[in-house]
From TrEMBL:
Protein name per UniProt: LOB domain-containing protein
Domain LOB: 5-88
Signal peptide feature range: none
Family of this protein: Belongs to the LOB domain-containing protein family.
Family matches, as Pfam families: LOB
Cited PANTHER family: LOB DOMAIN-CONTAINING PROTEIN 12, LOB DOMAIN-CONTAINING PROTEIN 4-RELATED
Length: 88
């Protein structure tokens, strides 16, 4: 990875993106919403911990299921929130 643009996670958390950044391979800077959503649902530190515990070849799969899960949860929240509004 070249250039000096931080990955999506370091950008959002306003830290310097290290060369060995755990997030960089899975959360590229051109897909900021991908990290934003897992950060919102699971929290960046949990995601980071989880990635570090996994062997590298399993990380990509884990990230895509996290993104999937986070999207599903947010959709559910939105759905219930709109239902609540309707009942009022
Ligand atoms: Zn980074």
């Amino acid at each position: 990875m070249g250039g000096n643009s931080p990955c999506a996670s370091c950008k959002l958390l306003r830290r310097r993106c290290a060369k060995d950044c755990t997030f960089a391979p899975y959360f590229p800077s051109h897909e900021p919403q991908k990290f934003a959503i897992v950060h919102k649902v699971f929290g960046a530190s949990n995601v980071s911990k989880m990635l570090q515990e996994l062997p590298i070849h399993q990380r990509a799969d884990a990230v895509s299921s996290l993104v999937y899960e986070a999207n599903a949860r947010l959709l559910k929240q939105k759905y219930f929130a709109s239902k609540c509004k309707m009942n009022k």
